[in-house]
């Protein structure tokens, strides 16, 4: 069985479970979109070892480009998302090429500076971005293929489109992370000097990681604008980068399914806690601290630990019963 076929039923089951179990279709849609965003962050942090606060740049850019291309160019939503993805990849290549010139804390500070710059540009160009008010009334222009119109004009249709995107993007990233490229990124993360000595172009691999991450995040940002029918300025704020990093770290950066758990935790638990206490981010910070100290692999490692414990317990019980 190929790698994609092995994971495809699991991803479809996740999409169906989110639709059936979560209290609203809007919440389920948001979980899948942010799971894609967390996956884009995990490529940088979990595989390339790059702690970047620049994810909001690509998220906001994707939202603006997908919205503007439909408003001013009149393209359909698929073309708008493809344009947003290309824009995200291009900007990610530029940001990555500049940021990787420094390492450690200096790299982190550069990504912070680029995010602040992107926010300032978005705020200033209010005739394009709407400034503080954001872009309002973002359409979902239908696709016309050989006379057949494909529209995502209802919550159910839009969720189906997001679920398909979720499954396809995750299958693609599973293939990439298990390829030679993914293994090389892990080698660079573990020992950059050794990877350089073996002849790998470390800077080129890091820029490619930025491109993959930026394109995925921009695509998800475009979907988020279509979901809200609105592209807010908050998409480009530093706090959005922080939320994306928290999702990736809490879920587990070394496993693609950690992105799903991180998104589910931040979106659903955040929605529940915010209904009871307006300062719920204080609790989230405490949970993040506990995760870093006691669950280095994130929630996904804890889940695997529970499964392993249960399998050993029931396995030993069945063995004793047979004997």
From TrEMBL:
Stretches that traverse the bilayer: 12-37, 44-65, 77-98, 105-125, 158-176, 207-231, 243-269, 281-307
Q: Has the keyword Membrane been applied to this entry?
A: yes
The record's principal subcellular location, in a coarse class, is membrane
Topological category with respect to the lipid bilayer: Multi-pass membrane protein
Any one Gene Ontology molecular-function term assigned to this protein's record: branched-chain amino acid transmembrane transporter activity
Name it. Amino acid/amide ABC transporter membrane protein 2, HAAT family
Tell me which domain of life the UniProt entry assigns to the organism this sequence originates from: Bacteria
- What Pfam families does the record point to? BPD_transp_2
